[in-house]
Amino acid sequence: MKFEDLFLEIGGFGRFQILVLFILCLPRINLPMHFLLHNFLAATPSHHCAIPPQEAFENLTTEEVLLISIPRDPDGTFRSCEMFSQPQFQLLLNSSLQPENSSILQHCQHGWVYDHSQFTSTIATQWDLVCEQRGLNQATATFFFIGVTMGAVIFGYLSDRFGRKAMLQLSLVCSVMFGMLSAASVSYSMLAITRTLTGVALSGVSLIVLPLGMEWVDIQHRTLSGILTSIFWSIGNMMLAMVAYLVREWHWLLVAVTGPCLLSIVCLWWVPESARWLIANGQVKQAHRNLLRCARMNGRKDFTVSPEVRNWRPRHIKMATDKKPGGSYSYISLFRTPVLRKISLCSGAVWFGVAFSYYGMSMNLTGFGLNMYLSQFVFGAIEIPAKMIMYVLVNRIGRRQSQAWSLILTGLCIGANIIIPKSFTSLRSVVATMGKGFSESAFTTVFLYTSELYPTILRQNGMGYTSFMARLGGALAPLMFLLDEVWRSLPEVIYCGIAVCCGSVAFLLPETLNMCLPEGIEDIE
């Protein structure tokens, strides 16, 4: 008897599953608020070198002081990182004659003056993370994703070893603690450390929510549950735009996006542990109690645990009774057998490409001609119809084709914006929005697809490994923006190339449409 057969008796998608999915969707709203927070937390407003007061400036206006103290670019804007070593008073007579002698230029000596019309404060204005320190500003996103990468490995193993629910609760509690510590940071070093630890904690939420929800639904509603859970990410994406618009001070912005985790902690107490995981780890009695609870809530009050179910254990436990349940498998098991090895290598590459291109687009809000708050909201809103379309496509043409083409089209949209001139603002915005939709489609599919590729005994290890690859891509994505000093379009070329190549790798993965979730490694092989 397969576990899927039990859903015929207890109800595969009733009130119980709907409530479980709704509660699990609450922490999903929080995830993009932290994962994409860098756009607002580390925003760099327009700035110029601070100019010390001099007697010669007493009769000059502020604009005239800037004119003789700071060089201008060909487009007429004042440079952000350079100033004249001596005031150039001749520019008062003819400001168009900019000095060509670079020896009279120097780096800012007295700090910077920032435009506070859009942001009260960001970490860039707090610790002057501009010009030579610009790399540290981008690195805050990398530190966060390094934490998420480490968390994927840690929580992937722990949730297979100690259960989905316990590790999800732990990750939420740690997310609140480290999120609040980040808001209270008094130095850049403290912020970097606490954001890294926040990433570790939130990785558990990202990793566990979807598999825990999917393990409680039947085959027919597995895709629907994955899409529904994913839609709440998009809702969080749009909410981030609104929260950031209302809260312009970075300390309070961190508090605002961390606080909702408390609601998730309270609600999660109701959600039961995955019956699949309990049975796979030999905790059959607790699994029976959870199944009875599910059946009663779904109106199947005549359901009883039959002797066949009481004595039922998956084949992988029957074949390994001499091994301690839950302690026999690790990340190495993902590469021991031929088919599983191929799945792991290819899915790892796909996850890297999905995350690398997704965060490359999501962290370039000012590159498409729209207001950054509007860009954030539009990028979040376009994800919802993209998910709806993917719900149809993954059930019609399959997971593999949907995964491959959504990622390839993401890369092509990024590549198209390299060619389209900057003056075509509307066209660039449309192409970028389409690319963001394809990118989110790829992300939605890869979560669902990967959950179906790995067997129950290794599902969280598999999700942990692939999430590690994704977070590696997420950690590298913001650093690519630093390459614009080499060639302005180089970051986009890299995003485009990686997306197309990794999308092509998805064609090597097996199709899982309408297949039972595998329980043991032998089901894969």
From TrEMBL:
<feature type="transmembrane region" description="Helical">
    <location>
        <begin position="197"/>
        <end position="217"/>
    </location>
</feature>
<dbReference type="GO" id="GO:0016323">
    <property type="term" value="C:basolateral plasma membrane"/>
</dbReference>
<feature type="transmembrane region" description="Helical">
    <location>
        <begin position="373"/>
        <end position="393"/>
    </location>
</feature>
<feature type="transmembrane region" description="Helical">
    <location>
        <begin position="139"/>
        <end position="158"/>
    </location>
</feature>
<protein>
    <recommendedName>
        <fullName>Solute carrier family 22 member 7</fullName>
    </recommendedName>
</protein>
<dbReference type="InterPro" id="IPR005828">
    <property type="entry name" value="MFS_sugar_transport-like"/>
</dbReference>
<dbReference type="GO" id="GO:0016324">
    <property type="term" value="C:apical plasma membrane"/>
</dbReference>
<dbReference type="GO" id="GO:0008514">
    <property type="term" value="F:organic anion transmembrane transporter activity"/>
</dbReference>
<feature type="transmembrane region" description="Helical">
    <location>
        <begin position="252"/>
        <end position="271"/>
    </location>
</feature>
<feature type="transmembrane region" description="Helical">
    <location>
        <begin position="343"/>
        <end position="361"/>
    </location>
</feature>
<keyword id="KW-1133">Transmembrane helix</keyword>
<comment type="similarity">
    <text>Belongs to the major facilitator (TC 2.A.1) superfamily. Organic cation transporter (TC 2.A.1.19) family.</text>
</comment>
<feature type="domain" description="Major facilitator superfamily (MFS) profile">
    <location>
        <begin position="87"/>
        <end position="514"/>
    </location>
</feature>
<feature type="transmembrane region" description="Helical">
    <location>
        <begin position="224"/>
        <end position="246"/>
    </location>
</feature>
<keyword id="KW-0406">Ion transport</keyword>
<keyword id="KW-0472">Membrane</keyword>
<dbReference type="GO" id="GO:0006811">
    <property type="term" value="P:monoatomic ion transport"/>
</dbReference>
<keyword id="KW-0812">Transmembrane</keyword>
<keyword id="KW-0813">Transport</keyword>
<dbReference type="InterPro" id="IPR036259">
    <property type="entry name" value="MFS_trans_sf"/>
</dbReference>
<dbReference type="Pfam" id="PF00083">
    <property type="entry name" value="Sugar_tr"/>
</dbReference>
<keyword id="KW-1003">Cell membrane</keyword>
<feature type="transmembrane region" description="Helical">
    <location>
        <begin position="170"/>
        <end position="191"/>
    </location>
</feature>
<dbReference type="GO" id="GO:0015132">
    <property type="term" value="F:prostaglandin transmembrane transporter activity"/>
</dbReference>
<dbReference type="InterPro" id="IPR020846">
    <property type="entry name" value="MFS_dom"/>
</dbReference>
